[in-house]
């Protein structure tokens, strides 16, 4: 393993590459990454990267986002089959059909979506900035795709907007039920329960704090409390334990494991750098329009 890590470092220098890893990645992958974070943070890193090659340890829509923002760079997804079920719940054709029913209503597209869907939207968002993005738009109605749970949370934070929601959801976060939250409260009565807004509204309503992965991590860091139950993908628990060793962290539900995020191994990162696999390509007709949605997001936040 040590030799493989050394080889990754050598190849990274040789190819002038940067390794980005989402918080949900395996511990071993996070350890070799140059930057670790949520979608919003990594989107900014990708946009500002000076390296020629971006190795994106995450799922396909994330690597696509990096390519959209850095079209002249080589973007590699170490595992070609690392997709996102939520992103696959909406198509460009489906979004066009919805838009036809609500002409002139702006479309906010969650970053968990394909380049084609982004190209059909007006502005993109992440879970960290979704409320701010929706609040910034003119008019009362907003189409929000594709996560209806996140959309429900946004609607409650921005009551002066009427959100038209797509029926999509994260299959991993959807595993958590209200009974799970009640059970952990009995097990850890003094713990603060921190939950991602991709969870069902009935679950979110029971949280002590609701936020994106980066917001959950910041809350845990700044809080005077010492015991936390984490209601998002288990990869976040690794980072929290590493950075806050004096505090205790427990996973809200054993099913909070994204199988697609866990496909990437340290061997995958090595193969990506060595064999230039798997390079992301986006059709020009989608890339330019999708880039506008991401640039508008970065301008707002």
How would you concisely characterize the structure shown here?
The protein has helices at 2-15, 27-32, 39-48, 60-69, 92-101, 115-119, 130-136, 148-157, 178-187, 201-204, 213-222, 235-243, 266-275, 284-300, and strands spanning 17-22, 35-37, 53-57, 74-76, 107-110, 123-125, 141-145, 162-165, 192-195, 209-210, 227-231, 248-251. The protein has 301 residues and is an alpha/beta fold. It has three domains: 2-82 and 261-281, NadA-like (Rossmann fold), CATH 3.40.50; 87-169 and 286-300, Rossmann fold, CATH 3.40.50; 173-251, Rossmann fold.
Describe the structure.
The chain has 301 residues and is α/β, with parallel strands linked by helices. The chain folds into 3 domains: 2-82 and 261-281, 3-Layer(aba) Sandwich (Rossmann fold); 87-169 and 286-300, NadA-like (Rossmann fold); 173-251, Rossmann fold (3-Layer(aba) Sandwich). 44% of the residues lie in helices and 16% in strands. The protein contains 14 helices and 12 strands. Helix 6 (115-119) links the parallel strand 5 (107-110) and strand 6. Helix 1 (2-15) runs parallel beside helix 13 (266-275) and helix 3 (39-48) runs parallel beside helix 4 (60-69). The model has no long low-confidence stretch (mean pLDDT 95).
Q: Superfamily at the CATH H level of the largest domain?
A: NadA-like
Strand order of the largest sheet: 2-1-3-4
CATH structural class of the largest domain: Alpha Beta
Helix content: 40-55%
The total tally of domains equals: 3
Largest sheet: 4 strands, parallel
Poorly predicted residue ranges? none
Helix-strand string = HEHEHEHEHEHEHEHEHEHEHEHEHH
* Corresponding CATH architecture of the largest domain: 3-Layer(aba) Sandwich
Mean pLDDT: 95
The CATH topology of the largest domain corresponds to Rossmann fold
Number of strands: 12
């Amino acid at each position: 393993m040590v030799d493989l890590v050394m080889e990754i470092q050598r190849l990274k220098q040789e190819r002038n590459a940067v390794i980005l890893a989402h918080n949900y990645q395996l511990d071993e992958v996070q350890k070799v990454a140059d930057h670790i974070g949520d979608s919003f943070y990594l989107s900014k890193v990708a946009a500002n990267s000076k390296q020629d090659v971006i190795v994106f340890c995450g799922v396909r829509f994330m690597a696509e986002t990096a390519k959209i923002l850095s079209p002249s760079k080589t973007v590699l997804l170490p595992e070609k089959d690392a997709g996102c079920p939520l992103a696959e719940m909406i198509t460009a054709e489906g979004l066009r059909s919805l838009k036809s029913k609500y002409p002139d209503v702006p479309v906010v597209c969650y970053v968990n979506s394909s380049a084609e869907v982004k190209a059909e939207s007006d502005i993109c968002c992440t879970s960290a900035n979704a409320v701010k993005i929706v609040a910034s738009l003119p008019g009362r109605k907003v189409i929000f795709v594709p996560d209806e749970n996140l959309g429900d949370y946004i609607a409650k934070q921005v009551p002066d907007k009427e959100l038209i929601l797509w029926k999509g959801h994260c299959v991993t976060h959807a595993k958590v039920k209200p009974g799970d939250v009640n059970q952990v409260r009995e097990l850890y009565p003094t713990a603060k329960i921190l939950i991602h807004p991709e969870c069902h509204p009935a679950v979110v309503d029971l949280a002590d704090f609701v936020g994106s992965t980066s917001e959950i991590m910041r809350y845990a860091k700044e809080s005077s409390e010492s015991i936390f139950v984490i209601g998002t993908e288990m990869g976040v628990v690794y980072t929290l334990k590493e950075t806050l060793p004096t505090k205790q962290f427990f996973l809200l539900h054993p099913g909070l494991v994204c199988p697609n995020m866990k496909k990437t191994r340290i061997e995958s990162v090595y193969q990506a750098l060595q064999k230039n696999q798997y390079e992301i390509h986006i059709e020009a007709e989608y890339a330019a329009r999708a880039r506008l949605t991401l640039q508008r997001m970065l301008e707002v936040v």
